[in-house]
Each structure stands twice: as C-alpha cells, then as structure tokens.
Amino acid sequence: MKYETIIGLEIHAELSTDSKMFCGCSALFGGKPNTNTCPVCLGHPGSLPVANRTAIEYTIMLALALNCRITPRSVFHRKNYFYPDMPKNFQISQYDIPLSSSGYIDVDMGDHVRRVGITRVHLEEDTGKSIHIGESGRIHGADYSLEDFNRAGIPLAEIVTEPDIRSPEEARAFMQLLRATLEYLDISDCKMEEGSLRCDANISVAVDGELGTKVEIKNMNSFRALFRALSYEEERQRHVLDQGGGLIQETRHWDDAAGKTHPLRSKEEAFDYRYFPEPDLVSVEPDPEWVERLRGNLPELPQERFHRFIEQFGLTRDIASMMTGEKALAGYFEKTVESGQDPKELAKWVAGDLSAMLREAVVPIQSCPVTPAGLGELVGLVDRKVISGKMAKDVLREAFETGRGPEQIVDEKGLFQIADARELEVVVAEIIAENPSAADDMRNGKEQALKFLMGQVMKKTRGKANPEVASRLLKQKLIGKD
User: Fold this and answer.
1) Residue 461's pLDDT is what?
2) Is the pLDDT of residue 445 over 90?
C-alpha cells in the first residue's frame, strides 16, 4: 500500500494586549492566581462584554500577513461546553463567519516549497488554567484540581490550516515560520513554555490516495514535541493499517516523557458545541480604509527578510533561515553589518560560536553581553590579522563572560598576532634547529611534518604566530618554495 501523511494544524496565539478580550482586566502573565478577574471574565449574571479594538487590529494584521481575505462582517458566537476552567460555561469565539479566511503561507523546505492554505484566522477568548495536583500532573489520577482564572478572557488568535502539510518536518517548519511572523508583527510574545503559543494537530494517513481517519493530538508545547508527536502518530497509524486494523476518530494526548500518544476522548463535532450568535456583542465590520492602512504598515516579514539577506549579504539559505527565524536575532545581525565587516563572516560568528554561547548560558539575544559593534570589532581583528581565528574564539568567550570589548581584551592580554616575517624567521630557525628529524621528514615530502613544526612554532609564540606567514617561512627554509 502507498501511504501519504496528511496533517492540518490549529494554532492559538495569545495576543499581547494590555487588557483582556471583553473586559478591562490586565492580560499580563504570572500574577497571583485569580487576581486579574472581574464580573465580565468570570461570567457573573448581568455583566456585558465589550470587544477589544487592539485585539481585532492585531488579528487583522496577522490575517493580512498570511494573505487572508478580511471578512466585511464577522460575528462572535458562543461555543457551549462545560469544563471547570470555563467560568461562563461557554467560550466566546467565531464560528461560521470568522474575521478572515482563504489565506496561505509558503514554507521553504530547501528542496521544495510547501504552500499551506490558511482556512481561517479568527478571534476568541482564552480559558482559565486547571492545575491538577497529584503525581501524574493530569486530571486522570489527580487528588484534586485548582482553577486560576487570570488567563480566562485573554484574547486569542486562532489560525486553522488546510490539511496541506505532508510530514512532521513540514509541520515543524510551518510552526517556526508562523512564530517568526507573529514576532515580526509584534503582536504576541510566542512563549510556548508559558502557553501563549499552543498547537493542536490533526493527522491521518491516506492509503493509495484514499483519505484516512483523522486523529487530533494535544499537549505539544514545543517544536520538538510537535515533531516527535507527529512522527510517533504517523508510525502508529501506519503500523495499525499494516496489521489490517482500523483507526477511530479521537483526540489523543502527547506524553513527552514516554514519547507516545494516549487516547483522551472521542473527537467532538461542531454540533456538540451548540454554537449560536453571541447576543451581547455586535458584529465586527472593519472599515476598508482602516484595513488598507494596516496592510500598508505591515513590517518586513520573515520570508521577505530571508530573501533579502540572501540577495543583499550573500548568505547561504541555511544561514539566512537561521538569521531571520527570530526577529531579535535578525536585528542583531543587521546591526553587526553596520561595523563594515564582511556580512558572511559576521553571520558565521552569530550563527556559530555566539549562538552556542547564548544557548549554553540560556541568555536571549536581546541580553547578549557582546554588542553588535563588539562582534564587528572581533571580526575586524581577525580580518586585519591582528589575532588568529583560534584566538578570536577565546576572545569572544571572554567578551561574552565579562562584557568587555574584544580590542580591550586583546590589548590588555597582549594577544596581538605576530605577522612580521623578520620576527617569525628567528622563531622558525630555532624550531628547525630543535627538531632536525621533523625537518628532514618535511624535506622528504611528509605532510605531517609540516603540521608538527607549525605546532611547535605556535607553542613557542604562545599561539601568536600568524599561521600563513609561519607556514610560508617553513616551506621556504626546508623545501625552497612558498
């Protein structure tokens, strides 16, 4: 049988507004439980919601960035279900007339581009947070549960894709691009660990072109978890089909520690929620001129910056993808370019040693101790052969740990590279005299002898010898050529 994986995603992004979606309570994360609440977000009788204009504006911006059509008139609905984290016993969302629809985003996979259709981008309110007390940390097996309603009512943009994704790799790349888009628009902090960016996935396996049974996966709170969960479920479904078994439409929970999905409940249908128009809210009818102003004010988006970095700075696709995948990192890199150094060399340092140090120290690029000007300074020192590439790595480490500038470190430690041929000629002569056997080996064409003698030169000069000059002098002395 010929299998094809079919994936669609449902993403919720908390919007970075000051207040909640339908009331004036603070939307800040991390307050004392149940302190950012009021009669409206707690669903008290007689309280009336008022839509947050900024949340509508942010959602329109996102929809435009995803090439969606803005609906002239959209309507809020009540999505009815009972759960402890729902103080009103319904969620204000949008159903058959969402704020936007029919968009797409192109995901560059290197060897191909996957166009993922965007079914809709709409607005709704978040639920509260259930905290299950017990060994499992889940509702099943919990001793009791606590409810924090601070999150209830925070504005959410829901992005629903078409089932156009064909692999876990594409799903991960799509999510990374979507997160970058939200960051570039500056409308969400996208902190998956805090729940401000969440993703559910629908996955099925088509057999010989015939669509299979859809399974929804929940509880994926990182890009790695998304990739692992989809990879596991893809294999699980194919194994069931290989064994002649059948799949059921259900919702499954991703257990990151076990690396498996587990059945959670049967999959709900839209009619289970008994949607009906929210009677306390008017329809949303964006002024076309307002929409066009928002379209005209959209910033440069990740894909545009990706192509510009390749064309303007000559970066490889992999490096450009890394540089533009995070707004702050792209901004840092562009500031390093202002130093006048080679952009390709700067990008290598940012993507390589500097990023490794940031990951190791768990420091965001916004708090990087090495300033963009400082990194430009370091690359300039290497370019002018003041220090070697190896020495530069040590200087960068010290600059990262102390916050001091590279030139200051090089000056204080006397790390300036010895590039003067006359000075190095004396050192080379001493090394040849001290190592006659290795010198003879080099005269006889043994390449390893050159490496050994170069090591001795670097050791005697404490790493300060210019490698190119030292190597040339050894060749001149022993084999009579440069």
Assistant:
1) 80
2) no
Q: 187: which 2 tokens?
A: 């409308």
Q: Which long-range contacts (CB under 8 A, 24 or more apart) does 407-415 make?
A: 407/377, 407/381, 410/381, 410/386, 415/387, 415/391, 415/464
- The pLDDT of residue 90 is above 80: yes
Give the integer Cα–Cα distance in Å for 422 and 438.
23
Average pLDDT of span 373-381: 96
Angle among Cα 82, 88, 92 to the nearest 5 degrees reads 95
Q: Running DSSP on this structure, what letter comes out for residue 366?
A: G
Give the Cα separation of 430 and 426 in Å (integer): 6
Helix (H) or strand (E) holding 92: strand 90-94
Q: Which two tokens mark 464?
A: 């300060």
Which residue matches tokens 């103080």? 87
Instruction: Give the residue from 303, 375, 366, 301 showing the smallest Cα distance to 338.
Output: 375
The CA distance from 464 to 457, in Å, is 9
Q: Are 103 and 68 in contact (CB under 8 A)?
A: yes
Q: What angle do CA 110, 112, 113 make, to 5 degrees?
A: 100
d(CA 187, CA 175): 16
Rounded-to-integer distance, Cα 277 and Cα 258, Å = 42
- Return d(Cα 482, Cα 480) in angstroms, integer: 7
CA distances from 258 to 139, 195, 261, 291 (A): 17, 21, 8, 47
Q: How many CA atoms lie within 13 A of 193 on its CB side?
A: 0
Q: What contacts 426, CB < 8 A, 6 or more positions away?
A: none
- The residue that leads in pLDDT, 179 or 481, is 179
How confident is residue 474, by pLDDT bands cut at 50, 70 and 90? confident
End-to-end alpha carbon distance in the chain: 63
Q: What domains sit in the chain, N to C, each tagged with a CATH number?
A: 3-293 (no CATH), 301-413 (no CATH), 421-479 (1.10.10.410)
